[in-house]
User: Which sequence fits this backbone?
């Protein structure tokens, strides 16, 4: 009888070990359209990342990154800011990297359309951030001469929204940048 207990105990340990090394499940997000993103965020900017600095939060429990963005165009919110700093979860400190599944991915020198809001992050209250993870950031890419905005959410599975749509705005091809800018301004009531 004790032999079977030993077998079951080792089977349980083995099962727990397998679970620990199993791949993590993807973050589940309900698809948001541009209209949802504009309505639920206080600012939208077209900007170029000029610096990224990662650090431990105040109590040393989580890595955050401050991303300095040169504002090329304010689409919603204050047009006076020429530079904004936003804080996102994750980053690299020394040999340690914290990766947020479906989190915004930004590279110095690249342009993005960013949907920004103030939120509480681990150890930081009211930080300006990309609250909607990959759905709140569009890569600006050159495509046949006319720049396009491609949602980073197009790289992740999305649950259907209330209309039954599960594809990120513009899909993998994205949206012509000028069309996205016009749509955001119209939805935000910004006239130029």
Assistant:
């Amino acid at each position: 009888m004790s032999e079977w207990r030993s077998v079951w105990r080792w089977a349980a340990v083995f099962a727990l070990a397998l679970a620990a090394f199993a791949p993590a499940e993807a973050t589940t997000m309900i698809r948001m359209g541009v209209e949802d993103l504009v309505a639920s965020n206080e600012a939208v900017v077209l900007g170029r990342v000029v610096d990224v600095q990662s650090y431990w939060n105040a109590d040393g429990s989580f890595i955050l990154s401050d991303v300095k963005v040169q504002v090329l165009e304010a689409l919603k919110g204050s047009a006076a800011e020429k530079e904004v700093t936003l804080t996102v979860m994750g980053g690299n400190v020394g040999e340690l990297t914290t990766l947020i599944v479906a989190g915004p991915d930004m590279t110095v020198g690249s342009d993005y359309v960013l949907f920004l809001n103030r939120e509480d992050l681990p150890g930081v209250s009211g930080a300006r951030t990309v609250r909607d993870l990959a759905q709140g950031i569009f890569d600006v890419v050159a495509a046949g001469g006319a720049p396009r905005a491609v949602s980073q959410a197009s790289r992740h599975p999305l649950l259907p929204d209330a209309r039954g749509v599960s594809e990120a705005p513009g899909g993998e091809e994205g949206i012509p940048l000028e069309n996205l800018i016009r749509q955001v301004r119209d939805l935000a009531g910004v006239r130029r």
Remarks:
- DSSP finds three helices and twelve strands in the chain.
- Residues 2-21 form the longest helix (20 residues).
- Helices lie at 2-21, 34-40, 177-188.
- Confidence is low (pLDDT under 50) at residues 4-26.
